[in-house]
Amino acid sequence: MNIKNIKTEVLSDNWYTLRKVTFDHQMKSGEWVTQSREAYDRGNGAVILLYNSTTKTVILTKQFRMPTYLNGNTDGMLIEACAGLLDADNPEDCIKRETEEETGFKVTDVKKVFEVYMSPGSVTEILYFFVAEYSKDHKVNDGGGVDNENIEVLELDFVEAMKMIKSGEIKDAKTIMLLQHAFIEGLV
Q1: What are phi and psi for residue 135, nearest 5 degrees?
Q2: pLDDT digits (tens, 9 = 90+) for 151-183
């Protein structure tokens, strides 16, 4: 291993944990160099694209995201695939729970398609990506989330959702990845 002498300092433990990690890293030349990085640990998560191959529609959500507001998104609202943190659940149980809470759809047959480090330069999170087919029969409540999440549920035509990537209406990476996966695999 080309890493040694790891020292960790907690900078913030307010909502999630921000750590400063100082370590010695061996370069290609063999020289050891001391470096430091900050890493934000918010836990791992799961995300899902609900699609209907008959109606050619997808279910997405829309909610306020403060970091996007701080970075120029004038109303802070972001269209995205349903997602959530694992907490104590495994990825599959998490995404089933989040799907019902956020969208109101109860799905049992979810398929994991891949897992991704979304921002490996600064965030520890691995995100587990899923897809599931839905129908009106899967609707068990209005969705909208819990604990003041205030989530709007959107049922969109798949072709229109793809156009929303190009127009900039959809700017969320996980959502774009899942929509492109659905296109490549011919799910919708």
Answers
A1: -140, 170
A2: 999 999 999 999 999 999 999 999 999 999 999
